[in-house]
Design brief:
single chain; alpha+beta; two-stranded antiparallel ribbon; 11% strand; transferase; serine/threonine-protein kinase; Alpha-type protein kinase domain-containing protein; kinase; ATP binding
Length: 137
Amino acid sequence: KRFGVIDESNLMHHEVNTHGWAQSLLELTYRFINKFISEHGAPPFEVMQFRFVHAVLAYAQKPPDVSGKSQSSHCAVYMLEELLEKEQFVKYIHNTGSIPLPKWHETGFDIAVFLCFIQHVQYQITDRMIFISDFQG
């Protein structure tokens, strides 16, 4: 069952807003890393480049209410996200901790370790207030 269009719209706006903040935090993290590299030289590991999928809100419209009873022509709201062409979904870090989910010998371990590093940087540059907790892809 769907929420009413007003409640659904509020929830979706919150979701897209959170998505935007996460993108900004990731960009801030890469700025920090790049500044550090420019001052101290390249690290002994690969600085992998990640991004969030593109996402927007889309409103489904209904025909105008000629009787004047309805104040909106919206009948539903959707969050449209970029489709990733990937064969396998990988969850790199669980929500409850900064420990890589893939084991050291499994595919994706190096990515998970780098994402944990990104979490650590985010936690430090925000004075221990925030980090992205659920990297997956």
